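User: Run a structure prediction on this.
Assistant: Running it now.
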Amino acid sequence: MEIPASLLMSSGTYAYVAVKASIHASDSAVFGLYDDEIKALVKRFSEYRKEIINGVLLKASPLEVVNALGQLGYRVVATTGEAEVIWTMQRDI
């Protein structure tokens, strides 16, 4: 089956990250960041831990982290969850 040309997305290259936290939390886990992006966030949020697998735990509310990632060029493309939410974010490479 062939996909119609009108349904094809652009052929851009993207990077994705995930932010996981409760909307009421004062800390957020971020997964999929490059080292330079971690350094940029650590400058903004000085309290952090890298002891989680594939990610970093920042002492900041999830909306502060989502907004900071927005300043790095990411945008929210999906969310899921109730008590704990995961924001999937994308940026052009």
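The helical segments are 35-44, 62-71.
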